[in-house]
Amino acid sequence: MASNNRSAGKSLERRQWMCWSVAAVALIVAVVAFAGTFTHSDPRTDILSPPLAVSDSSLNTKTLPLVRSEPVRLLIPALGIDTAVGTLGLQADHQVMVPTSAHVVDWYDDGPTPGQIGSAVILGHVDSFRGPGTFFYLKNLRAGDSITARLADGAVAHFVVVRVVQYSKAAFPDRLVFGSHGTQSLQLVTCGGTFDHATGHYESNIVVFSRYVSSTQRNHSFSAKSIS
To answer: What is the pLDDT of residues 130-163, one digit of tens each?
Structure first.
């Protein structure tokens, strides 16, 4: 009986981890091939945290981009998260690699690094059969909360949450999350919504959109400034 329980647990864990191969994989391939579309009126989306006011000065200035450097640590004070960051690429079949554990998060290394122009994306699991994952409470973030990414070259990139959205996987906005929009942004992605026990997958994805506001590098602080 114990052996059967362990086998069932491992099977459930594998099914839950497969949420990435069903959602994130398809969306990354779509980003490469063609742009997806998005509308706030789509009934398959749910705004979990309203957008940060567009009048916020940090969202209305062009900011000096950082040089490319891999993120090595992610800090989200509001959730008590301080975790190492790994990397994810694409497999030979063009599907995104899956995080190896519910307790690690990984940066998609075919995209920009945090602080570069474009959308840096970090993915993590919401849970496994053992319990909550690193991104279990990601949906609780609110506009205005801070996110910090420490980079391999010693730079520290600071971001502010703009909005938190839950998307049906069938309506995932590939271009919005992974595409470059001429700004320095960081998106955090996990599974969410209802868990379908028949398929072993979550039906939705949670996406936290954040915008770069400042950095600290080589013991010097750089705030977001307009480029003259």
So the answer is: 889 999 999 999 999 999 999 999 999 999 999 9
Interatomic CA distance for residues 51 and 118, integer angstroms: 19
Amino acid letter for position 61: T
Q: Is residue 80 part of a domain?
A: yes
17 lies in some domain: yes
Which residue range forms the structural domain that includes residue 81?
Answer: 2-223
Residues with Cβ within 8 Å of residue 215, at least 6 apart in sequence: 66, 115, 155, 156, 157, 158, 221, 222
Considering its fold, how many domains does the chain have in total? 1
Within a domain: residue 35? yes
Amino acid at 10: K
First-to-final CA distance of the chain: 69
Domain assignment present for 133:
yes
Of 44, 19, 34, nearest in space to 172 by CA: 44
For 17-59, the pLDDT digits (tens) are 444 433 443 444 333 333 333 333 354 688 888 888 754 544 5
Residue 9 in contact with residue 127, Cβ under 8 Å? no
Task: Determine contact, residues 137/115, Cβ cutoff 8 Å.
Answer: no
Please state, in angstroms and rounded to a whole number, the distance separating the CA atoms of residues 217 and 107. Answer: 20
Closest CA to 162 of 17, 53, 24, 18: 53
What whole-number distance in Å separates Cα of residue 42 and Cα of residue 204? 14
